[in-house]
Amino acid sequence: MEVTINNIRKEFERFPALNDVSLKIASGELIALLGPSGSGKTTLLRLIAGLDFPTGGQIFFGDEDASHHSVQERNVGFVFQHYALFRHMTVAENIGFGLKVRPSSSRPPKSEIRRRVSDLLDMVQLGGLEKRYPNQLSGGQRQRVALARAMAIEPRILLLDEPFGALDAKVRKELRRWLREFHDRTGHTTVFVTHDQEEALELADRVVVMSQGKIEQVGSADDVYDRPGSPFVFSFIGESSHLPVEVKEKTVFFQGQPIGISEAAAGGGELFFRPEDISLVEAQDALFGKVTACRRLAGTRIAEIDIANDGHAPYHVEVEVPLHAPVALGSEVRFRPTRWKVFENA
Amino acid sequence: MSDKARTSNPAFRDPADEGFATKVALLLLSLAFLIFFLFLPLLSVFVEAFREGWGAYYEALAEPDAAAAIRLTLLVAAIAVPLNLVFGLCASWAIAKFEFKGKAFLITLIDLPFSISPVISGLVYVLLFGSGSLLGPLLKSWGIEILFAVPGIVLATVFVTFPFVARELIPLMQDQGSGDEEAALSLGASGWQTFRFVTLPNIKWGLLYGVLLCNARAMGEFGAVSVVSGRIRGLTNTMPLHVEILYNEYNMVAAFAVASLLALLALVTLALKTLLELRFGAGNAGGRH
Q1: Closest residue in B to A96 (Cα–Cα)
Q2: pLDDT (0 to 100) of residue A1
């Protein structure tokens, strides 16, 4: 099911939670809504589900304007952050709930419900746990029961709110891979909310980066990591440092000195680069500063560098240095970004 | 292991632990208090009631006025408790699941019957429905008697016992939030189905507990009811009022016989309450029923 979101606005008591958000989700896509807390990602998910209603704008399911349809009419599968499993019902009763509450004209007979429940349990690899209660399951199992329960109603789209948020790191990784396979197998259009960029980048076909009620960038993992479209995306995704610079005659100046890199657009701006995208140099036209700390980070070594700032607090940047030739604390290093982006000052 | 370390090292003592003498003193003090203020009076009720044997006890209860009082008390409770169950549910639903202006004020209002004297609660209805009021004569012209009749007693009882169910449910429902309800709705359940299959099972122990307390108070209420009832023997006398009348007539055996029923109600309530608390706790932790 294709979902189109047109100029959605949502205000909570005058406080804008979403500001003119538009997004097109293709059928069968796996989309991540990524952003810090308060960015409006969960609000957007709840608006798609019909658990909240927008102040303005429209939501289309295919060609059908679903903006004013209730959550029941939209027929979406929603997996809640803390699963919201019904604690007084068994696993089987939880999964069968959506079928049991259908009007008698469209309700499958009991034997059929039982069969469908057991099929779904097999699908989420929890066969044999029908009679358990939610509190007798592990976090990962609950999560999969919640997913099976949402799938039982044959939803048009699947919506997941922080699906791995309440799990420990190891289970989280396993389930992440499992959810990707599950999606590829069932082909449901799926939208999930996360604040974990690793999760979003690894799992989703496209990542929607959100901040302060707006969409900052939509793109593949490569797009948002390699070609960040805004200062926010550059600093939110991955590691990065930034410095105020000036561009004159296609040359980038920092503190009035050329630093050996060029840029087209003239004017003041903010230079962004990632720690791994630098090279240490000997030349004079480069950035330079004192090493204040050096730490090992998995397969790399990161040096923290203070760049003097004329009596003010020094600029702090992080660069990757060779693993086997650590730089000495207090020594001066000179470096140039090899890949960078200058965002013009707004 | 830590216990062993504790005994082998006499110098070690849990900082929150008291000495042996303090413990015994505290225990004896509270026991003495309980015996003197609770157990002895309760025992004396039964001793007095049975002073002249089973026969007299039974006769005192079967006497027409006493029987009428028992019936009236049951009737009032049977009306007031279901009403407050519904009101309490509605109020706590509104408070726990919706955001609106004046919520704090509503919570305070619900507590009002707890904070004012029951006599005042009764007087309010006398003012509202008495012969000097606007409403009283009007209703009377339609043939509806409120004061010194069953409706007045029911009204006063409903007022006094209103907070019990709501007070029990509000924190419970606030704690549970609306996640389960949203899940049910997203699975296609209607509002009524959501309430029946999800909300009600989630709150049922709390609800039962509230109803139990509400019932105990409804049957035992004296102050408010005594103001509005007019104490007409055999007609508007509830059990607590009847006890007082018998007592004032120095009819001790009968007074204590009826009182013993009320005391029994209290004991049964206490037992059920304990039982419920056990299940309530287990229900919260285990999710089983």
Answers
A1: B187
A2: 86
